[in-house]
From TrEMBL:
The lineage of its organism: Bacteria, Bacillati, Actinomycetota, Actinomycetes, Pseudonocardiales. Keywords: DNA-binding, Transcription, Transcription regulation. Pfam families: AraC_binding_2, HTH_18. Gene3D superfamilies: Homeodomain-like. InterPro entries: AraC-bd_2, AraC_XylS_family_regulators, Homeodomain-like_sf, HTH_AraC. This is Helix-turn-helix domain-containing protein. PANTHER family: ARAC SUBFAMILY, HTH-TYPE TRANSCRIPTIONAL ACTIVATOR RHAS-RELATED.
């Protein structure tokens, strides 16, 4: 968090002399006036607006009046987006009224409030969650969270995003999801009740949806069923086949024959 005037400039000469730097800087302007320039784009962010900049390229970031801002620094490789997408997002105003941006702003504000109380490991996990939420903002995906953007809604959406981004992790189970977000399993069940499901059912549904999409895509036709199961975090093939059949009324192989075959015929 930064209070007061701020000026950060990186010239072409500084870029040429410095070693390769993959740091990114994301800033939310809570109050005051400022401007950011990069990649021949210029933005004057209003209160609540988020702006992204990449440190390895020439940029200028200035707040011209006394103001308050939240800043997040992270490595470029930790952001799960293509290089072109990241560069295109720099020095562009991110709408503070957008639901995804509201979720991120609420989370970062709360994170800075409690940061001193967290362990080093907890701060690392919290930072990763913030980067995942930023990726959601950059993809312009509105979070489907009912009842506003209170702390419980933010935490619930963080967990849902984490599940979708880590489906291939076989260690991601209900207890592990709770541990990574520093809540009890009991509280996590209470949060998922808000959207009419349980953590285990949500995790299973997301894995099966991802598997269904892969089985329907001719690009993955060479992958065996066991490889697709592993790609969505399910190690045991029989467990995967039983769950898939319960969900979709057919086996993974049967689904693939029907859908990939229909696509090839069309």
């Amino acid at each position: 968090m930064h209070l007061g005037q701020m000026s950060a400039v990186r010239t072409d000469r500084m870029v040429a002399r410095a070693p390769a730097d993959d740091l990114m800087l994301f800033c939310i302007y809570l109050d005051g006036q400022g401007r950011v320039r990069q990649h021949d784009r210029f933005v004057e962010p209003a209160a609540g607006t988020g702006v992204l900049a990449e440190v390895r390229s020439r940029y200028e970031a200035v707040t011209s009046t006394e103001g308050l801002s939240l800043s997040l620094r992270f490595s470029r490789e930790s952001l799960p987006l293509r290089t072109a997408e990241i560069t295109e997002a720099c020095a562009r105003s991110m709408d503070p009224a957008a639901p995804a941006m509201q979720v991120l702003s609420g989370y970062l504000g709360r994170l800075f409030d409690v940061a001193d109380e967290l362990t080093a490991g907890q701060r690392l996990d919290a930072g990763r969650a913030a980067i995942e939420l930023l990726a959601m903002v950059l993809r312009d995906v509105p979070p489907a969270v009912p009842d506003g953007n209170g702390p419980d809604d933010v935490l619930l959406e963080m967990m849902r995003v984490h599940v979708r981004e880590h489906l291939a992790d076989p260690h991601l189970r209900v207890e592990e999801l709770a541990r990574r977000h520093h809540v009890s399993v009991r509280r996590m069940y209470s949060l998922f009740e808000r959207i009419g499901t349980t953590p285990g059912a949500f995790l299973r549904e997301q894995r099966l949806l991802a598997a269904q999409a892969m089985l329907s895509d001719p690009r993955y036709a060479r992958l065996g069923t066991s490889s697709i199961a592993a790609a969505v975090g399910i190690r045991d093939l029989s467990t995967f086949e039983r769950a898939f059949r319960r969900q979709y009324g057919t086996t993974p192989a049967g689904w693939r024959r029907e859908h990939v075959g229909a696509a090839n015929e069309g």
